[in-house]
């Protein structure tokens, strides 16, 4: 077997040529809501990253550092260089210590290599309190899959989009004899990001946290970030309501402490938030009546349930006319005897004690 002719060594290229090649695979901007957007279509290797780190820090990363959240778009990234993984992960790693993120087995050399985050980066790491969303598609492959999976396992990013291809970490083309046929074979594999043993994404792909068609992934990501941006305000208003209104006052301090220390990193929808809040608050208070609900205004709602009329007001006056009184009783109370001789009484409005006395 004979390897095909190799491309010229990267380091034989000038700095301008390296930058031009890099710009073809990178795109960045700041979106509405101060959300940083970084699209990466190819993961450069260590040589390129080391050579261009000053350029990247000054022209790309510095412009994204001031954003309140970041979207890393890997939907069009079908591969890259394994040696580039630490550079991507390190800028998003919020810790001050190095982290072992993966172990790679290489078949041709029969060796394993541990991949760690860098001891330091040029510039600053992206803030630990800022949300990161990774976009994926059915074409996201190889090194891009490994990066998405590592960030997901680190609980550093929310993966939005489609299940990735589940391809190989590294491929090599081999010529079959002297023919014009080539065989593409996987030559490297991940042994499990973050020390997860045999668990790996190869073959099965990376499953997103929020599944959505790839073409809608950015829109979905921005909606998730809008919700997450509102979470501190929601928690604060809940705390104020508990202090002001909750009748079991002896349980309020424990509830406030629970809200202040809640882990909301996995919340990606209103349903997630309501479920998490109700589960936690009811467990702490031991009060199943304590409920959080989503109430949408008519201006922002759509659907049959949202078109329902407002609840009727409390009855406070009794009409003089007997027929009107009977109509009032019929409108307030519904009485019937169900099969099995079961009495049924429904009332949709409350009445003052004086009104009930007259009726």
Which helices and strands occur, and which strands form pairs?
Layout: H1 15-25, E1 26-31, E2 35-40, H2 46-65, E3 69-73, H3 85-92, E4 100-106, E5 111-116, E6 131-136, H4 143-153, E7 158-161, E8 170-175, E9 182-190, E10 210-211, H5 217-245, H6 252-260, H7 270-285, H8 322-332, E11 333-338, E12 342-347, H9 353-358
Parallel strand pairs: 2-3, 3-6, 6-7, 7-10
Antiparallel strand pairs: 1-2, 4-5, 4-9, 8-9, 11-12
Characterization of the model:
By secondary structure, this protein is α/β, with parallel strands linked by helices. It contains 9 helices and 12 strands. The strands form 3 sheets. Strands 1-2-3-6-7-10 form a 6-stranded mixed sheet, with helices on both faces. Strands 5-4-9-8 form a 4-stranded antiparallel sheet. A hairpin with a 6-residue loop joins strand 8 and strand 9 (182-190). The protein is elongated and about 105 Å long. It comes from Leucopleurus acutus. It holds the Pfam family Peptidase_S41. One of its GO terms (cellular component) is cone matrix sheath.
């Amino acid at each position: 077997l004979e390897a095909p002719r190799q491309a010229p060594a990267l380091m034989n290229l000038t700095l301008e040529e390296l930058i031009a090649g890099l710009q073809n695979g990178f795109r960045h901007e700041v979106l509405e809501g101060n959300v940083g957007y970084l699209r990466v279509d190819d993961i450069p290797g260590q040589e390129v990253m080391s050579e261009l780190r000053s350029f990247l820090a000054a022209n790309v990363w510095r412009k994204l550092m001031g954003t309140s959240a970041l979207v890393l778009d890997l939907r069009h990234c079908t591969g890259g260089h394994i040696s580039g993984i630490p550079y991507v992960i390190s800028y998003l790693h919020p810790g001050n210590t190095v982290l072992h993120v993966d172990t790679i087995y290489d078949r041709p050399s029969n060796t394993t290599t541990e991949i760690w985050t860098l001891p330091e980066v040029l510039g600053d790491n992206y803030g630990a309190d800022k949300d990161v969303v990774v976009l994926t598609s059915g074409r996201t492959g190889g090194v891009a899959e490994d990066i998405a999976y590592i960030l997901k396992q680190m609980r550093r990013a929310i993966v939005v989009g489609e299940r990735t291809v589940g391809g190989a970490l590294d491929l090599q083309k081999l010529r079959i004899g002297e023919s014009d046929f080539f065989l593409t074979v996987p030559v490297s594999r991940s042994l499990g990001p973050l020390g997860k043993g045999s668990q790996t994404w190869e073959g099965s792909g990376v499953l997103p946290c929020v599944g959505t068609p790839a073409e809608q992934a950015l829109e979905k990501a921005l909606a998730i970030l809008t919700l997450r941006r509102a979470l501190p305000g929601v928690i604060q208003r809940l705390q104020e309501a508990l202090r002001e209104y909750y009748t079991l006052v002896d349980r309020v301090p424990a509830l406030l402490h629970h809200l202040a220390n809640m882990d909301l990193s996995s919340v990606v929808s209103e349903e997630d938030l309501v479920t998490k809040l109700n589960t936690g608050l009811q467990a702490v208070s031991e009060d199943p009546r304590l409920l959080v609900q989503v109430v949408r205004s008519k201006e922002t709602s759509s659907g049959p349930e949202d078109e329902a009329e407002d609840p009727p007001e409390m009855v406070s006056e009794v009409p003089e006319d007997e027929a009107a009184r009977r109509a009032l009783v019929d409108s307030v109370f519904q009485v019937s005897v169900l099969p099995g001789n079961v009495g049924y009484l429904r009332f949709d409005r409350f009445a003052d004690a004086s009104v009930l006395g007259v009726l």
